[in-house]
Amino acid sequence: MNNISLTVNGNKLSYSGGTMPASGSCQYDKCLFSFDSEWNTFSKTIVFSKGNGEEYKEILTGSYCTIPEEVLRTAGVLKIGVVGINNAGTIISTNQVSVRVRRGANESETVPVALALNMLDSGGAVG
Question: The whole model's pTM is what?
Fold first, then answer.
């Protein structure tokens, strides 16, 4: 597992380390979050985007989430942000941090992601 460590203090999100993801990966790269106590009563949604492209959202139920494969298809700058909402309707929106996605060996989908996921669902082996 490739962990990208992120820290959230109030509405400030910081990239606190970890390795950079590589394009063409699927279900391998994860964001590992550390929140201050201000977030204790908030549900958390992680927002991912690439360039000026579409946003992808993941609900955070623990301390980590998987980065959507859609934002890892090509090399470039991945933007990550967090939005929280509590029962009173208060919303916290953090800044976005930028994480570089390196060009990976599977960027041209040498092993197509759809094929790999289909093989896993059917219990087969990839390769």
Answer: 0.85
CA count, 13 A, side-chain hemisphere, 32: 12
Pairing of strands 91-93, 64-66: unpaired
Q: What is the DSSP string of 35-73?
A: E-GGGTT-EEEEEEEETT---EEEEESSSEEEPPGGGGS
* In contact, 104 and 76? CB cutoff 8 Å: no
The neighbouring-strand residues paired with 34 are 7
φ, ψ dihedrals at 29, nearest 5°: -85, 130
- 59-100 pLDDT per residue, tens: 999 999 999 999 999 999 999 999 999 999 999 999 999 999
Nearest to 22 by CA among 97, 76, 95, 66: 76
